[in-house]
Amino acid sequence: MNRLSLLLLCLASSSALTAQSGTTVIVNGTAIDPGTGKTMANAAITIEGDHLTAIKENSTDVPKKGDTVIDARGKFILPGYIDTHVHFFQSGDIYTRPDAVDLTSVRPYKDEHDWIERNLRDTFARYLRCGITSVVDVGGPIWNFQVRKLANSAEKAPRVAVAGPLISSVSRPQLELKGDPPIVKIDTPEQARQMVQKLAKEKPDYIKIWYIVAPPASAPPSPGLSPAAGQSDVDRAAVFRPVVHAVIEESHRLKLRVAVHATELEAARASVEEGADLLVHSVTDKPVDEAFVKLLKEKGTILTPTLVVFERYGRTFANKLELTPEEKAWGNPEVIASLDVTKLAADKLPDRIKTATANPQPVLDRIQQTYDIALKNLKTLEDAGVIIATGTDAGNIGTIHGPAIFREFQLMKQAGLTPMQILQCTTANAAKTFGGPIGAKIGSLQPGHFADLVILKSNPLDDIKNTSDIDSVMKNGVLYPVDSILK
Ligand SMILES: [Zn+2]
Fold first, then answer.
1. Mean pLDDT for each 10-residue chunk of the chain (487 residues)?
2. Buried b (16+ CB within 10 A) or exposed e, 111-120
3. Are the CB atoms for 214 and 227 separated by under 8 Å?
4. Residue 226 alpha carbon to ligand 1 centre in Å
5. Nearest one of 426, 444, 460 to 85, comparing CA atoms
6. Is 308 exposed, middle or buried (0-12, 13-18, 19+ CB in 10 A)?
7. Ligand 1 mean position to 92 CA, how many Å?
């Protein structure tokens, strides 16, 4: 057959293809499947409908007449990226956490929520623009379940798994609208079981615990909690542990998995001992010890480092936010504009921003201290073979929905992970956080998997920064040239 007679699709064409009823074959490119660590030159990837049906290395097959052929010569094909920690009820802008900085006199929280709701499809599209074809929202109001439904029926959107409200030892009334709070204070194991039963009706992908322990005696009080005089780290973590125990036991009884926010080593250890399936942040208060590493491995607990979020609140408030070129290009421009704290009226400035802007160095020092521990911990856990899944905590102030993942990659690289390890965390490992029948069909280039792909113009194994050199993205077998996505 004359190759010229084939329909050669220009990857730079301006409109997305609709789902193919026939067969699509991606030819001549290099396929990288991080889950297996395999790189396949001159690959032929066959797609029928929304899933992959075959992948061949060094293929000399000539596509059949009628097949749609995509020529990926000189390009690199990977499973779509997965961000395992985002929050759709937060925009990433300066108004999105009035419990952290209260700017409700500038923008009432209800207006912030309305903005978020109006812009959901735009937010979804920004994930796709960044090659992210699946995300896990690990906590928000009951409204989150509507977000999942919308994303999973919208065209330019990632697959979405969600948790509902966070079960915590503290409450955040500033974030409650229409009786639907994202964070619920639970005081007893009995209340905890009832809450899990209530959430189970929504078929959550996770039950989420926000395990906040009282700060040590030397620390300033955190909202809702006074410093605990004379208590050890273990004692402080023990206060909320009966609730953690009840939540996990009841969730597992109902076949639901549990994600836990626990950034202190002893709270993280208690969570894993109680059976947490996913730790959604790094441990940041001290280096992890051998017993903790062994425990994570034995239990098969997954850990999401969320490195980028640790710098973003502080840097935003100190007017030291250094967004990456990817964030500037593909983040929502209104969100980004709001993060310039110098544009806020002086009489509206919360003390936290005033103090940080006047004296940024202590803020930057604290961020560095957090990274000194968190990056080292990530390297320790990765080397030990703990399952690490990439996640950003996007939606928090300064952590930009979509492109924040590329800053996360930089930080994972700084921690000492290789490009292949970072990609494994972002595909095969991240798919494990998704769970269920969907999780079993994403994150890898295998026949039977969803055709969720990212096609790059340069080799991400040479430098992880090439992960943002995106030519096109395929979701559900539909190809989107990148320039067609954000319109
Ligand atoms: Zn989070």
1. 37 41 92 97 96 92 87 98 98 97 96 98 98 97 96 95 93 87 92 97 96 78 72 86 96 98 95 98 96 98 98 98 98 98 94 96 97 98 98 98 98 98 98 94 97 98 98 97 94
2. ebbebbeebb
3. yes
4. 23
5. 426
6. buried
7. 12
